[in-house]
Design brief:
By secondary structure, this protein is an all-alpha fold. It has one domain: Orthogonal Bundle (Farnesyl Diphosphate Synthase), CATH 1.10.600.10. 71% of the residues lie in helices and 0% in strands. The chain is built from 14 helices and no strands. It has helices at residues 3-12, 15-20, 25-46, 52-64, 74-85, 90-105, 112-133, 141-158, 160-165, 173-178, 191-213, 221-243, 247-250, 257-268. 39% of the residues are buried.
Length: 272
């Protein structure tokens, strides 16, 4: 495995990285390549200043070289290699880049439909790519999308402070207003209203999570364990935030290595 590719993954993810270590070697390496592509695109819009021109260049290289897999860009080409190997749909890649481009054009989301449009490209299509990589049938695809949606929404909740620093808010304004919130800025938000709002947002996460879990039965045991592990690590994160919603202002909630080890043991038993 290329050290650079592995480091991109290791440095930027806890739940996904440690979960992916338990895939069979060939799948694990391809998951790392997929994540390197996704993370690189994400970095272009998370850096200050943003680099929309590099993101547009990445999009052009990806879509124009879909068949020949020879863009001259290492990160793009390893993604194209994986995409060809598992027969990804070209529109999935386009949807992903389009969502990344939304981060250069849009700072906040007014309604859930807008948030879900972003999530489709940023997370649900990644779930669809994973179904291809794991050789799952059509019955698994909707559940994979829902699991990706749930995890991304958990990220939105967990990363409120970090996203505020980037000038973004992904949680829909109309739902904030239902709880009397006009802002999520730490020094301006009403504590009690914020707590109730966050708990309402975690309910969305749990609804989609439950739908995603229905797909586990379609996954062969050898590749099911890392999927369940990743899912359980996100549930742990959601549980910790629900216990104390204001923790998102104090720290980035991540499972510790002992917690990951515990969740792995539970996952090996096949428990959701």
């Amino acid at each position: 495995m290329d050290r650079e590719i592995k480091e991109i993954f290791r440095q930027n993810s806890t739940s996904y990285y440690y979960s992916s270590l338990f895939f069979p070697k060939d799948i694990r390496e391809d998951v790392f390549k997929l994540y390197a592509y996704v993370r690189t695109a994400d970095d272009y819009v998370d850096e200050k200043p943003q680099q929309p021109e590099k993101l547009e260049e990445m999009k052009t290289k990806t879509l124009e070289n879909w068949e020949n897999q020879d863009s001259g860009d290492k990160i793009v080409d390893i993604f194209l290699e994986v995409a060809n190997k598992y027969d990804f749909k070209k529109q999935w890649a386009a949807a992903f880049i389009n969502s990344m481009q939304m981060d250069t054009e849009k700072n906040e989301y007014q309604q859930m439909d807008e948030s879900l449009e972003y999530i489709y490209g940023s997370a649900e299509v990644i779930g669809l790519m994973m179904t291809q990589m794991l050789g799952l049938d059509e019955d698994a695809k909707e559940a994979s999308k829902m699991l990706g949606r749930a995890m991304q929404y958990c990220n939105f909740i967990r990363d409120i402070k970090e996203d505020q620093q980037l000038g973004r808010r992904y949680l829909p304004r109309d739902e904030m207003e239902q709880y009397g919130l006009e802002t999520l800025e730490e020094d301006e938000v009403d504590s009690e209203k914020f707590r109730e709002f966050i708990k309402s947002q975690i309910k969305h996460y749990r609804k989609w999570q439950k739908k995603g879990e229905k797909g586990f039965k379609h996954i062969p045991y050898r590749v099911r364990v890392p999927v369940i592990l990743s899912s359980r690590l996100y549930k742990y994160t959601a549980d910790k935030i629900e216990e104390d919603p204001e923790v998102v202002y104090r720290e980035k909630v991540r499972p510790s290595k002992p917690r990951i080890a515990y969740e792995l043991l539970v996952s090996l038993l096949g428990r959701k």
